Amino acid sequence: MAFSFLLLLAAQATPPPSEPPIDWDKEFGVEQKVRDPATGETPVAPYTQSNANAGARPFSGKTMARTFGGQDGIRSITARLVELSENDHRTTAIFKAHDMVRLRRTLYEQFCYILNAGCDYSGRDMASTHKDLGLKMVDLNALVENLQRAMREAHVPFAAQNRLLAKLAPMDRDTLKPR
């Protein structure tokens, strides 16, 4: 009897074999996108790369590129635009779920290409890029205000700012949610 009692105590003291934790993402088919180790970007579905995807033709000549400070100036302006937009309560939700590494790169390439500063644009076309964002005119206006601030801080002359904005403005038909 005492031996049976000891066996019973020993059985209760030994924890049952533990089961591995449930991987709920795997269970429900959620795929984690792994960033490219070289670029830090999240992979996207294949698409045809073309400068035509930039949404506007480049300026002729090098005046606009020089006015914006060349590639270094354009990189600074686009980085500042992204920083302002990430921290702007009107636009922060738009940027939250995005690959910011890719956004910074492709936005820089787009502006660099349009300003004729010697870059090619490798991003997707504007309609594909923005199709599921549900952007409205109020969102676009906030982004434009942030771009204007970034250009102003970089001492880009007002006339040059307006020339770039005039190139970007027609893209609203590809970037905004249909009414």
UniProtKB/TrEMBL annotation:
Transmembrane segments: none annotated. Residues 37-59 are annotated as: Disordered. InterPro entries: Globin-like_sf, Globin/Proto, Hemoglobin_trunc. CDD domains: TrHb1_N (cd00454). It comes from the Bacteria. Pfam families: Bac_globin (PF01152). SUPFAM superfamilies: Globin-like. Keywords: Heme, Iron, Metal-binding, Transport. It comes from Novosphingobium anseongense. This is Group 1 truncated hemoglobin.
